[in-house]
Design brief:
The protein folds into two domains: about 70 residues, Roll (SH3 type barrels), CATH 2.30.30.30; about 30 residues, no CATH class. The chain is built from no helices and eleven strands. The radius of gyration is 17 Å and the shape is elongated.
């Protein structure tokens, strides 16, 4: 399986789907499924049974995973979508934005 260009806490933009154009922070990356959960993107209604915590029960909106291919990292300098280049310095791996040449942290 190939490595992913997106990591937790990255700022990304959605390229395709219902939420196209929305920006958000990556909350979780599911490597085996090649999906990521992004803050404020791809909401689904999840039903919950009544419990001690939520005695009423009902529906709640939750962010669902979105495929990595539909996400692009945001360039730290220009704020636009960019591709990623990887540079090796010894044992360290540095991600570099293709548009500006700036390091992605």
């Amino acid at each position: 399986m190939s490595k992913l260009h997106i990591k937790k806490n990255d700022t990304v933009i959605v390229l395709a789907g219902e939420d196209k154009g929305k920006k958000g922070k990556v909350l979780k990356v599911l490597v085996d499924k090649q999906k990521a959960v992004v803050e404020g993107v791809n909401f689904v209604k999840k039903s919950s049974k009544p419990s001690a915590k939520n005695p009423q029960g009902g529906f709640e909106k939750v962010e669902a995973p979105i495929h990595i291919s539909n996400l692009s990292l945001i360039d730290p300098k220009s704020g636009k979508p960019t591709r990623v280049s990887i540079k090796h310095e010894g044992k360290n791996v540095i991600r570099i934005a293709k548009k500006s040449g700036e390091e992605i942290k």
